[in-house]
Amino acid sequence: MKVGVFTAMFRTHAFDEVLDYVVSVGVDAVEIPCGGYVGDTHCKPAQLLNDPAATAALKKAIDQRGLTISALSAHANPLHPNPEIGEPHRQYVINAILMAEKLGVDRIVTFSGCPGGGPGDMTPNWVTCPWPPDFSKTMEWQWSEVLLPYWEKTAKFAADHGVKVAIEMHPGFCVYNPGTMLKLRKAIGPTIGCNFDPSHLFWQGVDLPTAIRTLGDSILHFHAKDTRIDPLNAKLNGVLDMTSYRDMNERSWIFRTVGYGHGEETWRDIVS
User: How many CA atoms lie within 13 A of 29 on its CB side?
Assistant: First the structure.
């Protein structure tokens, strides 16, 4: 196992500066964002895919510092029903796959995506309960008509280029927990796996060691990220919380650095 840094956290810094810092703190790897919600500050596939010299220079900057690339990230919603958003996001995923191949990286990280609630809908619709029956019908349509056809095609494209796709289980998208992750993997095949980010599972009430055992070799990448559940706000309003992330004192849960949401024993169990 190698410990790495997601360079999206340093998007205001030059790439060489980020790599030097990463080396100075003893980290072995980097995950590099290359489009979507995480931006493309340090890797712009639209340019690099047509510039072999620049691509070689990026790889050399990493190799000469003894680092490896754990994954390329294109966190996006490739199923967004608005074509002005959906088309660019689908291209982010394709470009990340092609960029990974050029750099000798065997996996990318993204989201499963979330389509609209039906034909003609222009906004994503995340279904969270089976009743009234409209919700179940919506979810069935999303999976059979949008999600599975897209990932069948995209997984084949990724496999043809020697790349696997690590889906981050994130509420708001069709794949958000181990059950939906394994459902997609069973339908599509082993080219699809997961980026295991505990922070999105903690507040859903998932037991992390149980999830890790169940997901097994479908785990392709891991984000060390914590969540603190506020005992008072959660008891009052539950965990389906639309309060702004800026209003930390009012939220039922907030993202935290490892150890500031759950203690050492929890993280020891996760790592073990």
Answer: 14
Pick from 205, 165, 200: which is nearest to 185 by CA? 165
- Report d(CA 239, CA 241) in Å as an integer: 5
- Per-residue confidence (pLDDT) for residue 1, from 0 to 100: 85
Q: Can you tell me the distance from the alpha carbon of 272 to that of 160, in angstroms, rounded to the nearest whole number?
A: 34
Mean pLDDT of 98-104: 98
Round the CA-based radius of gyration of the chain to a whole number and report it.
19
User: Average pLDDT over the chain, rounded to whole?
Assistant: 97
Reported residue count of the chain is: 272
Whole-angstrom distance, CA of residue 261 vs CA of residue 252? 12
**Beta carbons of 184 and 220 less than 8 angstroms apart:** no
Burial grade of 25 (CB within 10 A; 0-12, 13-18, 19 or more): exposed
Q: How far apart (Å, rounded) are the C-alpha atoms in residues 240 and 129?
A: 12
d(CA 211, CA 221): 14
Which amino acid does the sequence have at 94?
A: I
Query: Which residue reads 């990463």 in tokens?
Result: 22
Place of tokens 């639309």: 242
pLDDT of residue 150: 98
- Block residue for tokens 């790439």: 15
The one-letter amino acid code at 227 reads: T
- Kindly report, residue by residue over 204-246, the tens digit of the pLDDT: 999 999 999 999 999 999 999 999 999 999 999 999 999 999 9
CA nearest neighbour of 81 among 2, 146, 165, 4:
146
